Amino acid sequence: MSDALARPTDAEGSAPPRSTAVVAVLAFAGIVVSLMQTLVIPIVPELPKLLDASASNTAWAVTATLLAAAVATPVVGRLGDMFGKRRMLLVSIVLLISGSVVCALSDSLIPMIAGRALQGLAAAVVPLGISIMRDVLPSERLAGSTALMSASLGVGGALGLPSAAFIADNFDWHILFWT
Fold first, then answer.
1. Quick one: pLDDT at residue 173?
2. How far apart are CA 162 and CA 158, in angstroms?
């Protein structure tokens, strides 16, 4: 981002409409990432049957996401500093979508784990979003916007679990990854 975009305000000191859109888009992205991390939880007991694998092996469908997220978040944050936060945010979202497609098309354990790992690589969306907000929002909007971005993790989890349970109970489990 250029310095010209840093902390813009209009003549009255309020944030321009663009900053509201930035916050909304980034918060939505945070919700989506959180949703994807929790989607598989309601089907964990059924994964051994669905993927024709042992329960201990199917646990990797959850573990791979968390492990990839733990490794990727600081790395992607640093890459954001080096190559641009917006660029790395877009890369993270592409990885999330790619992982979702792999999971949606999987009928065995290895593709499911690979897809979930790709989804985990997108966990850096929230810290990247907060960093982008620091660059583009006026200082008086930063605290509330950062809180909203942070809350997107909880909102996504709160929406993801009951939504995933409903979908898994009423439709084919593959649909979880297309939604």
1. 92
2. 7
